[in-house]
Amino acid sequence: MKNKSINVLVTRPREQAKSLCEKLTAKGFTPIPYPTIEIVPAKLNEDSRLQLKALDAYHALIFISANAALQADNAVAGQWPNFTAKVVALGSKTEQAIEDLGIKVDLVSKPPFSSEQLLSDFPESLEGQRILIIKGEGGHELLADELTRRGASVQSADVYRRVLPKPVSPIPPHSIDYLTVTSQLSLENFFALYPGDTDEVKKQACFVVFSQRLAEHAFELGCEHVITTQQADDEGLIDAIVRAEK
User: Fold this and answer.
1) Of 205, 135, 210, 146, which is closest to residue 177 (Cα–Cα)?
2) The domain boundary residue, chosen from 163, 180, 195
């Protein structure tokens, strides 16, 4: 690693940035929390409320994120109904969040913790299967569409929303070496929130992203230096930065 301080802007929601910041510090980097998304509970419609009260009607429950698990728990006020459905977690952090609620996880997606990888764990034929995807508003159409194509009856319960947080203190473009990006929304929100010269950031900073699709979007927005992680988690982000610094 180079001798100068390497600054890494962390765009995760404030309450979820701590772990990544600690891991970056342990590796000798200087993390700068800069949340571009705030997680708030969704206003559940009657269908979603009924879905969460009747989990035994499903063969599988897919939790998309740790936020999905935590906000679903809030929605049922910690009083989960009895159910026999298989519990599926997208990623190890989601698994941990679910198990912290006292719920056993039956299947965890393998790295790189994407919808595509999760689909490889499901059989090609899902005729007669009822599946509930517990997630935030928007996104993951590919997962629902493909499960439906395989014959499953798929429903979604959107239990949280992602909103634009209040801006934090500006960071000079030349002080940003790396910028971690975990979703298209977090990238777009960064440019909406950043009060300085975004063109300079696009030239100076290296954007570390979770997927090739996200990398392509970053290039479309004018980001000149973009690297893609090998897996969609903290370790993937850190490993990508370490490799870039060698």
Assistant:
1) 205
2) 163
